Amino acid sequence: MTKRDLIDEVNRKFPHLSRFDSEVIINSIFGSMVEAMEREERIEIRGFGSFVVKHRRARGGRNPKTGAIV
Fold this sequence. Notes:
Blueprint: H1 3-13, H2 19-38, E1 43-45, E2 49-51
Antiparallel strand pairs: 1-2
Helix pairs in contact: 1-2
């Protein structure tokens, strides 16, 4: 489902809202989620999933042509 599909679904379920209002609502929700992730908070959406920031060590790669470590 894309962001546009989500906006359309909100419009379908709440026909009294304009498309612009639905878009503002969705953008606000996503903005809040991004801010929470920046603060490294865990986000849980019941029935959908949970999101958490995981820090991982950097790993080296190799140039497949030369074999040099990048």
